[in-house]
Amino acid sequence: MSKEEIEARLKSALGRLHSLPAMPAIAQKLLALPLDTPEGELEMLNLIEQDPQLFARVIGLANTPAMSVGRKISSLRDASLLLGQKRLKSVAIGLATLSSMAKPASRHFDPQGLWSHSMTMAVAMSEIAREMPLRLRPDDNRIFLAGFLHDIGLMALHHIDPAVSEELHRQLRLQPKRPIPEIEMELMGMTHCEIGALLARHWNLPEDIVEVAAHHHAPEAGGVGIRNPLIRLMNIAEKLLPDFGIAEHSDASISDDEWRELCIEPRRAEFISMQVNELAIQMVQLPETVRPVSSTVEVRGIAETNSSVKTAPAPNAPVEKIAPAAKSAPSVKPSPAANLAPGATQSSAKDESMPHSADKVSPLKSLLRWLGLTH
């Protein structure tokens, strides 16, 4: 099938709103739910409890070693106290949305890999944002929602036309050095960013989230990245973790001007890169109960900078190190934590590459800080 035929078929499908995936009813209700009253919080907990799969995934996430602080979380009220009401709301919306759109994995595309990518980008964005001045920093819960939903265009394409989606991901693996928008335009005359923005508007998502879906690969377009810092945060997170979870090559170079656009000093780039890499290692070890896709499919692994996606290691195999990608920072030596098997802890690993300064923060502490449990 020619590019013109593929483009015509996709535009026809996208032109029929009923052909687009529907936002789950529970996600719609959660999105519209105010949390500034006890009644609002109670309604949120009731909504999540009514969906057994969503309930199980939220509780599973709350009980991961990095998030449960050593105590068992068995109720949504405990999870709400641990995560905070707004963060719990964002978690539930993200999990419900990606789960509802998930189809079985194909040979070249694994929705579970996309979930891992999205969740990790949300955490990475939050970590980067902590370096921004407080007055300019986006709301952490908005960051989480943007990270979770930035690539909904890829999931929508898999839903609308699985054959075209499969060919796209095959080409991404065959051409790992080329940016994804180039390959998409060559193959189908449009990008997953365009599809994602269309779907986000169809779902009546907030405009800043729509813009992240539309521009996260090109934040310079029309200065939108300056006006909406979520876009630049998303773009830098993907550059720091190229090809994490899915084959979606990004230019790994980050200029000083890109850091300054977020009012972050470029000299902090090396430290930020280390922290994001360590957080990603923590995220790849999340248990299967948290993932919104059946564990019968393979999970995409962590790829080296500027390399193609690799299959995840076997349960007892070592986890690869994610190479730091900041242009303005010197190279960082691999951490011994990179050799931990999935599910292992880092308590016994001494990271010689971490700076011996007041800036040294363990990945566990970073996750706890992201959850608002420490400072």
The succession of helices and strands, N to C, reads: HHHHHHHHHHHHHHHHHHH
How is the main sheet built? none
Q: How many extended strands?
A: 0
Individual helix count: 19
The radius of gyration is 20 Å
Mean pLDDT: 74
| Secondary structural class | mainly alpha
Helix content: 40-55%
What's the structural blueprint in terms of helices and strands?
Elements: H1 3-15, H2 25-32, H3 38-49, H4 52-62, H5 65-68, H6 76-83, H7 85-101, H8 111-129, H9 140-149, H10 152-160, H11 162-174, H12 180-188, H13 192-202, H14 207-215, H15 224-227, H16 229-240, H17 256-261, H18 269-284, H19 363-370
Helix pairs in contact: 2-7, 4-6, 6-7, 7-9, 8-9, 8-16, 8-18, 9-14, 10-11, 10-13, 11-12, 13-14, 18-19
Protein model, in words:
- This protein has helices at residues 3-15, 25-32, 38-49, 52-62, 65-68, 76-83, 85-101, 111-129, 140-149, 152-160, 162-174, 180-188, 192-202, 207-215, 224-227, 229-240, 256-261, 269-284, 363-370.
- The protein has 375 residues and is mainly alpha-helical.
- The longest helix is centred in the N-terminal third of the chain and has 19 residues, at 111-129.
- The radius of gyration is 20 Å and the shape is globular.
